[in-house]
Amino acid sequence: MSWGTELWDQTDNIAAYVQKGIEFCEKFSHFLREKCSLENEYASKLKRLVKSYQPKRKDEDCEFTCTRGFQEMISEITDMAGQHEWIAENLTNSTMKSLHLLIQQIKNDKRKYLQENSKQNSNMQSQWQLLDKFKKQYEKAFRESEKARELFNKADADINLSRAEVEKARSFMVQKQQICDNAKSEYGAELQKTNDYQREHFDKLIPEIIQRLQDLEESRINSMVSLYKECVDTERKVMPIVSKCIDGMERASSLVSSSTDIKVVIDKYKSGFIPPGDIAFEELSSDNSSSSEKISPAVSVSSLTRGDAGKSKPAVASVKAKKKDQ
Question: Which of 53, 138, 149, 281 is deepest in the core (most CB within 10 A)?
Fold first, then answer.
């Protein structure tokens, strides 16, 4: 299917359609610009998030595998954020740059083809005007020739006119007839020229221009397909790295060991003391029934500190009896 053949008389509609194609390219460019902005913003916020959850001190809870696993996991998120930055950079420096060049090229070609179309239409209009001029000259000459013929016929039929006056009318008629014949020949020649030019105009010149507009539109569409695929390839290229980051996050989770962290807590807070033994039963008698005894553990568990670990202290409760005079 060819626009030049099927749409030879639809130049204005074709020009409007090509303009819509340019506007669509510009819309796609705006989309990519906003996407790059979002990619950079997302990467920046991810990095800021990871930074805010980094330990404030170097040794903060780093002895626990759960904490170390978390730090390893969020460090992979930082690498993933870098991939979003790479996507934005690649789209900006490659895809968007190619798109801008495409838009500019289409605009220039469209302007050139439409200017050529206007020029051809102007030439055709000038040729029609020239033909109309020759036609009007022929019509005028024909009217004057007919009028001269009528005057001669009238003079030839008038018996009151002299022979010289009749010959004068004949000569005038012949002169006007000659002028009419010349105008007719010129009109005929110009008509042939106009038909030839019109045939070339509508069968060749304008269809060629419209066909170039079709080629331009096909090139635009094919270029858009390539740019779409370039966007897809950009996204696909980061997938292996993102996949490695995800694998790293999984490895980080495998480093966590509940038993190890439980042991670390024991090693960190173990005092070295043993629990107190049983309290002995004190049997009362009539001799000591009024005695007061205070039973207390030798060591308070809550008072133990790490500094006390390893020191030998009595662990058995003592009984101090206080006797009163009966």
Answer: 138
